[in-house]
Amino acid sequence: MVRVLFVCLGNICRSPTAEGVFRDLVRREGLSERIETDSCGTGGWHIGNPPDSRACAEAERRGIDLSDLRARQIKESDFEAFDYVLGMDDRNIANLEAMCPASYKDRIKLFLSYASDVGRHDVPDPYYGGPDGFRDVFDMIDKASRGLLADIRTRHPDALG
Ligand code: 4NP
């Protein structure tokens, strides 16, 4: 099993979208028994809440259902439990590195490092913007998800069977 954790600030916009998009890709590739997905926030303001309605609407427009997801906050045991701990922006990465045990630091990566064709290195926070922000974020996440799956296939061929 390969375990992937998507991390943003609130766990209601970017990381649940990433979880939903990547989970759908994994399902379509027939790998749901091999790759486990989850998401969380570095902050705790939205614990227990479903994703932002704008994120849900954009996902639904693309055929992705986020309605079962609920926000939670990162915890120290996540660094041991997940093979990939993927932050959406530099602030997420700094927060993750500050609390991660030294032996697991190499599990922390910027999610867009798997999307060389996007032309930027972070997924911007769409929370205070308009619907265009959610559309753009979705596009970036979609591209990075494909790159991430390719990386998993390269690095964990045995786990994928
Ligand atoms: P996310 O967006 O990190 O992509 O889930 C945010 C959601 C909520 C807040 C900030 C960012 N907030 O400050 O409540």
Notes on the structure:
It is a single chain. The protein is an alpha/beta fold and 161 residues long. The protein has a single domain, classed as Response regulator (Rossmann fold, 3-Layer(aba) Sandwich). It is globular and about 40 Å long. The chain binds 4-nitrophenyl phosphate. The site of 4-nitrophenyl phosphate (4NP) has 10 residues, from loops.
In whole angstroms, the N-to-C terminal distance is 10 Å
Bound heterogens, unique: 4-nitrophenyl phosphate
What proportion of the residues is helical, as a percent range?
40-55%
- Could you name the CATH class? Alpha Beta
- In CATH, the architecture is 3-Layer(aba) Sandwich
Counting H and I runs of at least 4 residues, what is the number of helices?
A: 6
Give me the oligomer status: single chain
| Overall pLDDT score | 97
How much beta, percentage-wise? 5-15%
Class of secondary structure makeup: alpha/beta
State the shape.
Answer: globular
Q: Which parts are unreliable, with pLDDT below 50 for 5 consecutive residues or more?
A: none
Q: State the domain count.
A: 1
Assign the CATH topology.
Answer: Rossmann fold
The largest beta-sheet arranges its strands as: 2-1-3-4
